Fold this protein.
Amino acid sequence: MSPPRDLKVMFQGRLQAFHCDLAFTVPGQGVTALMGPSGCGKTTILRAIAGLHRFKNGFCALGDVIWQKPGVFVPPHRRSVGYVFQEPSLLPHLSVRQNLLYGAPAQAGGGMPTLDEITSVLGLTNLLHRRPAGLSGGEQQRVAIGRALLAAPEFLLMDEPLSALDRDRKNTIISFLKRLPIPILYVSHDSDEISKISSEIIRFVDGSIIRTNRFEPDADTITTITRICQQPEDRSGHREERRHG
Amino acid sequence: MAMQSLPPDLWQAAWLTVRLATTATIFLLAFSLPLAYWLARGASLWKDAIFTAVSLPLVLPPSVLGYYLLLALGPSGPGGWLARISGAGQTLAFTFWGLVLGSVLYSLPFAVQPIHNAFEAIGPRPLEVAAMLRASPWRAFWTVAVPLAWPGILSGAILGFAHTVGEFGIVLMIGGDIPGRTRVLSVALYDYVENSQWREANIIAEGMVIFSFAIIFLMSLLRRRIGRYQS
């Protein structure tokens, strides 16, 4: 296996209501959590890393493979990145099995799990011939995770991938994800989930990083960040009130 | 038995119509699929202009389109040049392939619009999913976009076919009325009426009504299937 490769990210440009100017490094192993209140643009950051969103000015590289820099923009399908979207987004015309194998290379390797391991860990064995429309939200999420892993990515982006799962299933999948040989950038609102899964945490607000550190549950910090991020909304809210009054 | 007593020129016109509509539909699909896909992905003023140009036959009188096509296909237009270098004579007007070209242009909006709507209804996500699973845009198109849009694609093909069967003005302008080459059913109907052959005229008219009913009925059955994946 190749040595761990960091993901280096620098993005500048508009991000929702804010001007975004951020730079951070995701370690080449383990699970790194990306935290921040909703509406802060975490999903956009994941999309930009995947190549689905383009910041005017940006740099993005996995190890020495550059995905984006001025004059260079590698299209999404040429980036060896996996993405578990916030919505399961299964391909509706394919069976669970066909979804799982859609991106699977002919020869997998690098210590990534096989179809059999995936289906047993994620509890999909009895669902393989079903269509996505007949699955529950939690089942769909598990298929989406398995599908991303079977494509054998070198880096995995996950956007609240466990939100529809019950506690037991969550714990099984969390310990499974922690054993994977690839680095993961993980977005979640659930601080309990984050404390279990992540070795690093990146917090950001208004499109800029507050700090990167080892995770220590710190409720005060999180509340403060929430308040800063919601300020612009609050101000417009006051204006509304005044107009009504 | 009624069938056997039909004049052979009616059969000839019917067979020519089917050949013309089938050929035109194949070309229509070949143009409409990439065009509609391109138009459905992201908006720009340039795309709106192209979409408008493609939609022009919806409002232009067929004779206007036929007039320009006649100039283009005739001896001094590009069609004449094409006919000369391919050794087909002096002009593409009044030929089967001239009619195919006219039909494709004339029926293009009827094929492009349902296909465009179907591609648009898929939304960007399934294609993003395909890209994240490292499918090339080509593979994503054939394995995700086309299977998800197939009811719309089928509607486009059926509408294009039906519309080609029903065209009249443009055929008269660029095709004339040559039995076996350009006399399609709609033109034959006109001829029969002119010659007071009411029985033959009736057969064509009734056949057209039944055919059109069947097509629109089929379309509404298809439309019900479109929502199938969206649960």
About this structure: The radius of gyration of chain B is 20 Å. Residues 12 and 205 of chain B are 16 Å apart (CA to CA). Residues 8-40 of chain B form the longest helix (33 residues). The domain at 27-226 of chain B is CATH 1.10.3720.10 (MetI-like fold).
